[in-house]
Amino acid sequence: MAFDTQAWLAEARALIGSAHVLSADRGDDLSAYTRDWRGKFQEPALAVLRPADTGEVQALMRLAARSGVAVIPQGGNTGMCAASVPVPGGRPQAILQLGRMDRIFEIDPENNTATVQAGCILQTLRERAAAAGRLFPLSLGAEGSCQIGGNIATNAGGVQVLRYGNMRDLVLGLEVVLPDGERLDLLRGLRKDNTGYDLKQFFIGAEGTLGVITAATVKLFPAPSAGSVAFAGLDSIGQAVRLLGAMRARMGERFAAFELISGDAVDLVRRYFPDTPALLERRWPWHVLMEAADGGGDEALREAMQAALMACLEEGCVEDVVLAGNLGQGRTLWSLRENITHAQQMDGGNIKHDISLPISRIPAFVERMLPQLRQSFPGARPIVYGHLGDGNLHFNVSAPAGVAPAAWQERTGAVNRLVHDAVAAMRGSISAEHGVGQLKRHEMASYKTAAELDVMRRIKRALDPQGLMNPGKVL
């Protein structure tokens, strides 16, 4: 029997209200929901569904299961791998947009937890936690629009993973609606619970392919009262790795962030943001941006940071360094790191890689890969930066001068093979914090073992036997 679009839409509208079921047939503009953030993927959707609570999500999932409609959970749609937009062909696909589910149920300072709906904006949670004297440490460029459910579904990382871990480390409990509409209540604020399988881990990083995350209990931490930021120049990545070890040994748990930035990345930022100050006296091939934080005073922390850096200078772990004198100067230092992505967008075409490696192997990887790229793709401009403290590099390759962005994107497969094969040879991962989505789905077979893929498919079949959840993603 042919699928009756109008009957399905009418039933969905009866469940959650007509205003919250958007569809092209009545003139609604769905482009903001059906196109990924990078503008690489766009396919039509049957509807955009905007539920207000978990009960409405359950009702919509029961409707989808009964009618065979695929469901694509979507948060802020800020992901890098097109995991939250439709794929070509197949059954009708409805986007389940969770933005209306944005309540913060509880900030519990004594337990150092927050319980929120999946549609809660990351920045909102950070601000509410700060008002209670607490820190929610996940911080990334899209925090003003990304949502907690999406952060969990992609296992987001950010700049403070070195100290606090990624999203998987920050989640204590989840509420999930399964593909058949059943509610799975794992919403507990416990740090110890050894009663069988840790079911929440199936859904963290699964990119909405196993169920819909509707709420979460996450860890909070005492808000730091002091911070200190430094920017250093180095001759090599090997020197940066030595500096990381030396600073962690001296600063301990106070050491929160350690970002690697290539000289080419700094040059690119200065080209498009000419007001960026010259932070060091000369150009260095590599830089690191470091931050420490604790519950003491700014001056005491700054003195400790200065003493550690002076010792590193004497040991040859660093060549040149500037230490921010106050909060404003610290923000200036961070602005250079934060503007790399914007500068790349302004510069034109680049092929992005979000890779992770054992920290000890990163120098060898970069030293081999840079000349190989330039030999295989003359004029290519590698822009390397990222979270060296946790082994995650954004190893992006900008188009040669004069090459149109579209023409450069046609080389994506060849560039990816060169980079990803080298990553795999060093026992690394082709996705550190951006996920797989539909962008990297076809590469999974090359970089995951047959046994790993088989187990993943068994889990998918067990939880989603109809294949309703986010088809065409991950597997």
Condensed summary:
With 475 residues, this protein is of the alpha+beta class. The protein is built from 17 helices and 19 strands.
What are the defining features of this structure?
475 residues, Uridine Diphospho-n-acetylenolpyruvylglucosamine Reductase, domain 3, Alpha-Beta Plaits, eight-stranded antiparallel β-sheet, five-stranded antiparallel β-sheet, 19 strands, FAD, FAD-bd_PCMH-like_sf, catalytic activity, FAD-binding oxidoreductase, FAD binding
What does the model show?
The structure is a single chain. The protein is of the alpha+beta class. Among the domains are: 104-222, 2-Layer Sandwich (Uridine Diphospho-n-acetylenolpyruvylglucosamine Reductase, domain 3), CATH 3.30.465; 228-346, Alpha-Beta Plaits (2-Layer Sandwich); 348-432, Alpha-Beta Plaits (2-Layer Sandwich). It has helices spanning 5-16, 31-34, 54-67, 122-131, 148-153, 161-164, 167-170, 200-203, 237-251, 263-272, 298-315, 327-347, 362-376, 405-409, 412-425, 444-447, 450-463, and strands at residues 21-22, 47-49, 70-74, 93-97, 104-108, 113-117, 134-135, 171-177, 183-186, 212-219, 221-222, 226-234, 255-262, 286-294, 320-323, 350-351, 354-356, 381-387, 392-398. α1 (5-16) packs antiparallel against α3 (54-67). The chain starts with a helix and ends in a 12-residue tail after the last helix.
